Amino acid sequence: MQDIAGLAKRLGHPDSYCAVAAVSILATRPSLQFFTDANGQDRTSKMNPASREKVTSLVSAASGQVTAEKPVQAMGGGRSVAAFARSEDGAVAIIAGLAIPVLLGFAGLSLEYGQLLVVRAEAQRTADLASHAGAVAYSRTGDTNAMTDAARGVARLNGFGADEIAVVLDSSFQTASGAAVRATITTPKPLYLPSLVGGDTSVDVAASAVAGASAGQPACVQALNPNGGGITLSGATTLQADDCAIASNAEVAAPCGTSIITSFLSYDSANPPDTGSCSTIRSQDGEATQITRRPTPDPLEGSDAVIQARAQMARTAALSPPDDVVVASGPDIDFGWNQQKTIDQAEAVGCTASFTSSGSTWTFSCSGLSTVNIGDITLGGGLTLRFNPGGAETTTYDLSGGIDNRGSKMTFAGGIYNVAGGIITGGGSVTEFGAGTYRVGRSDKNCDGGRYSICNTSEMTFEGPSDFVLPGGVRNTGGSALTLGTGNGNSFRIGPSSAGDAISTGGGSETIMGDADGGVFEAVGWIDGGRGGSCLVLPSTELHEIRGSVISSGAVRFGSGVYAIDGYMHLGGNGGGSAYCGGETISIEAEDTTFLISANGPEPKGGKCHDQAFCLTAGYSDVHFTAPQSGPFTDLAFVGPLDPSRPEGALFAGGAGGSEVSGAFYFPTGPITTSGGASASGGDGGCLQLIGAEILMSGGTSISSECDLPGSASQGRVVLLE
């Protein structure tokens, strides 16, 4: 009965509470003389006079008492009402009569409550639909008026007036559109039972829902800069992403003659995508593309990979060249045709020299010596030198001068070589070194306009594993062959020549560097991969640090690992293309690699790569870059400048057709541009993810992304959040 009283009280009238409670109490406990509350206090004192009189009369009638205002009349047979009430005769009828109003009240309350539930369910369903419709409109346009109109239209179709729905942005929910859309339905519901006893005639029923565009995973093609050109196509270009979304934080322009093929496209601009009145934006099967207006966050900003890339770029920028090679002065040895002179010079350093006329060969031996101190070593034309054959690999050879091969062939035993004056060879010669440690200073002799630690103009080979410390860099001239270390376990520390190159190769040359897993690769100075027809093979190692630019017009095979390039990367800026390299014809091969490019320092001059941090152009038609599948830079192929003050971007230009890049191509501060018939894709089974400040395509170019990123198909989908 207390529940009934409480329900009556919630209907809004205190007298209704008292009346129902009184009837209920009397129906169950007719012997009570007074109507009291839980604390024993007389509740009739709180009623208005009319209600108090009714309740007092009911109590008096039920208990046999007589009020002062209305004496009880005697009933037939001289029996009083009190006596009648105390009698058991007719008690059931009295109780039943008193209980019927209570039961009717229960039924009325149940009906009233059930109707309220129906109204609330309808209001909630409408709020869900209205918030969803509003969120769809807002995600597509970014316009709050369109959002409100869409939500109100849904409410109207479901029987709710414009004054019964409120539509607002709710910033407490983060969505792909920035904020969610909250729709609240508030409608009055008439109350009938309370009105019979003087209570409220209606109650407000409210329901609310929140919806917003889901962010999903990053799109496979993104233009990040809200103040840039967004995604702009012109001149018979095609941008295709069959299994993932395309996104722009600015405008999207795909005029007639161009194509954007994707199922999901988002933009964030006051102007919708410009198609020039042509159907240039569609899905692969020809269906309409789902187009959404919303901002797209940078998926890599603040990631562990980018944080590590930034730190590594800073370390590479501070990289120092190796120290010069300094040794004590020693006597020169000229292995020439004057035999006695050479024999005397050999004895002066504690060794012997013998000449074999049949092969015009000198044999230099230093048996038992752990250190040999020499000045310059030179070989005359038409002669061969065998330098300490069979010598221990622990023997140290200190040369205060250099090694100059102007003869036919020099063969050096493995060991520890400290050569202050560099190594230089003449045309037609062959120079061979065993495995060892080679610290070679810069020569004072000119080599194609510069002075280097190693200048090869013919054929030179260093067996491996070997450790190279070359503070003056390496030059392999046109048509020459140079091998720096064979097999694995090599190590390279290379400084700049007088021309600023760490590694410089000429047209038609072949330069092979052995792998350096477990070793290091440090180069202070540019790496010039040569002109057309040249071949450069860089070693595999965990980290390649290059304080300078990487340029090439020939074939290059980049060994696996991370390349931190504190400079620019220009491939084909001055022409060139494929060549026979490492046993096969290649263009650019880079498997299991990540390139970090800062665009610091002087930019390479000339060619088509001006103002680009990365450039691929000329005749490079068979290019393969594949990001690592494990480690800190998993699926990250390129990272462009991370300094906001560096706006240099990436360019795929004329002739660079069929490029395959599997992994993320990330240039957050500069544009990614294609022109002149260039094309790029992820290759067979690969995933090309382009993320740049802008995406600019012209001149018959094409980009195709086959990425199937987790959740990428949910880009821009609106879902209920609350």
Unreliable runs: 1-40, 61-79, 711-715
Distance between the termini: 38 Å
Secondary-structure-derived class: alpha/beta
Give me the Rg, rounded: 45 Å
According to DSSP, the number of beta strands is 54
Proportion of residues in helical segments: 10-25%
- What is the average of the pLDDT values? 84
Morphology call: elongated
The DSSP helix count reads 9
Biggest sheet, in brief?
Answer: 48 strands, mixed
Query: What percent strand?
Result: 25-35%
Provide keyphrases for this structure.
722 residues, alpha/beta, four-stranded antiparallel sheet, 9 helices, 19% helix, 33% strand, disordered N terminus
Detail the topology: elements first, then pairings.
Blueprint: H1 2-10, H2 14-28, H3 49-63, H4 81-86, H5 91-141, H6 144-157, E1 165-170, E2 180-190, H7 193-196, E3 202-213, E4 221-223, E5 231-233, E6 238-241, E7 246-248, E8 252-253, E9 259-262, E10 264-267, E11 281-282, E12 290-293, H8 304-317, E13 333-335, H9 339-348, E14 352-356, E15 361-365, E16 371-374, E17 377-379, E18 384-387, E19 396-399, E20 403-405, E21 409-412, E22 416-419, E23 423-425, E24 430-433, E25 437-440, E26 454-456, E27 459-462, E28 467-470, E29 474-476, E30 481-484, E31 491-494, E32 501-505, E33 510-513, E34 521-524, E35 526-528, E36 535-537, E37 543-547, E38 550-552, E39 555-558, E40 561-565, E41 569-571, E42 579-581, E43 584-586, E44 588-591, E45 593-597, E46 612-616, E47 623-626, E48 636-639, E49 649-652, E50 659-674, E51 679-681, E52 688-697, E53 702-705, E54 718-720
Parallel strand pairs: 4-7, 4-52, 5-8, 5-52, 6-9, 6-53, 7-10, 9-11, 10-12, 13-17, 15-18, 16-19, 17-20, 18-21, 19-22, 20-23, 21-24, 22-25, 23-26, 24-27, 25-28, 26-29, 27-30, 28-31, 29-32, 30-33, 31-34, 32-35, 33-36, 34-37, 35-38, 36-39, 37-40, 38-41, 39-44, 40-45, 41-46, 44-47, 45-48, 46-49, ...
Antiparallel strand pairs: 1-2, 2-3, 3-54, 14-15, 42-43
Helix pairs in contact: 1-2, 2-3, 2-5, 5-6
